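Aim 2 progress update. The chain analyzed this quarter is reproduced below.
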Amino acid sequence: MKTLKEVVCMAFIFFSILNAQTSVQVRKPAVADMFYPGNPTELTSMIKKFLSETKIVVKGEIGGLVSPHAGYVYSGPVAAWSYRQIEGKTFDVVVVVAPSHYEYFPGASVYPGDFYATPLGKIPVSKNLTQELTNLSTKIYFSEKGHRVSSLGRSEHSLEVQLPFLQYVLGDFQLIPIVMADQSWENVHELANALATLLKNKKALIVASSDLSHYHAYDTAYKMDKSLQNLFETGNFKALIEGCESRKIEACGYGPIATMMYACSLLGYKKTKVLKYATSGDVPAGNTMQVVGYMSGVAYR
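Predicted C-alpha cells:
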C-alpha cells in the first residue's frame, strides 16, 4: 500500500506532465492602443473604412504583398490597398516577414509559440510548417528574438500590425511569423529559397512588412521612393537591396520586400505592381517637413 507521501508525489508528477502537455504559448498584442485601436469594435470599424476607400486592381493569382507598418492613422489607408486584393480569399498558410527595429540577431527568427494574438483573436502558428522551414537552413531558427519585448522595454510592431488586416480580410488562417534583423543578400537568398521549397504546391501568401524613406522633406521622399517603386515593378530585388544598403533609397524592411519578391518569383509569381503610395504628410495628422513613405504592392501571376 502506497504511503500518503508517495501518492502526493505521484499526483504532483502527473499534474506537472499534464500541465506541460497542455501549456500554450501566445504572443500577446504589444502595440494595441498605440499603433492601432485596442478595442475590437473600433479596430474593425477602422479597417472596414480603410478598405472601403480602395478597389480591386489585380485580377491574377496573388502570391505576395508589401504592406507598411506605421500607426494605422498614417499608413492604414495605404496598407488597405494590399489587403483589399485578397479579401475573401483562402490560403493554406500566410507567411509574414518583418524587420526588427529594436534588436539585432543573425539569420531569420521564427516564432516558436502556438499563437500570435491581436484584439481580434488568436492566430494559430503553423507548427508543422515552421518546423519544416527551420529544418531547411541553419540561418532560419526558432527564437523569440524580434517577437518578444526587448531589453529596452520595447516591442516589435512590424509583424503585429499586419495581423488585424489579415484577420479581417481572410478570417481564419495559419501563420508563419518571421522577423529579420540581418537583411543582407546572403540572408535574403537563404530565406527566399527555403520559403520557395516549403511552399511549393501550396496556396500560400507571403507578406513583406516595410515602410519606405524616413524623415525627409515631402518632395525628397517622393523622389527617393519612386526609385524604389521602379525597382519593385521591374522585379529587381537584388538592386533594391544594394540601393538600400548604399542609402540611395530607403526601406526599413528592404530584406522582407526582397525576400517576398525572390520567393514569389521562384514560385511563379513573377509580376509585381505598386498599388498605392503616400506619405505620412498626406494625412491630416502628418506634416510635410519630415515624412515617412508608405507603399502597398503585390506579386502575382
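The chain has one domain: 25-300. The CA atoms of residues 192 and 263 lie 5 Å apart. These observations will guide the mutagenesis experiments scheduled for the next reporting period.
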